[in-house]
Design a protein that fits this description.
This protein is α+β, with helices and mostly antiparallel strands. The chain is built from 2 helices and 5 strands, in the order E-E-H-E-E-H-E. A 5-stranded antiparallel beta sheet has the order 4-3-1-2-5, covered by helices on one side.
Length: 99
């Protein structure tokens, strides 16, 4: 089991939302696919800057048994293999607490 947390911010509304799940909450094949996608994540991208203020930004934290790993990206940078997991996290999102 791995816990995954997602914080989404920016976009046209500027709202910040959070969601999380444990991979063992997913059906077997979906959990295995999610774990493979998480293991394949590269290092965190450089800080997002430039005129893309309307592009939602994602901060994905994977709580591995050996320690947490955080990756930041914009929606266009999300690897295809990770999209099903992010869709599941989006179903669970709610407003973020105060920053």
């Amino acid at each position: 089991m791995v816990r995954v947390s997602l914080e989404r911010s920016g976009g046209f509304t500027g709202l910040r939302t959070t969601s999380s799940l444990d991979t063992d909450e997913l059906p077997g094949p979906q959990a295995a696919e999610a774990l493979r996608a998480l293991e394949a994540l590269g290092p965190s991208s450089a800080a997002v800057s430039g005129p893309a203020a309307a592009t939602p930004r994602l901060r994905l934290t994977v709580h591995w048994p050996a320690g947490d790993r955080t990756v930041e990206m914009t929606e266009p940078q999300v690897p295809a293999a990770l999209r099903p997991l992010l869709a599941e996290l989006a179903k669970r999102q709610g407003p973020a607490g105060p920053a």
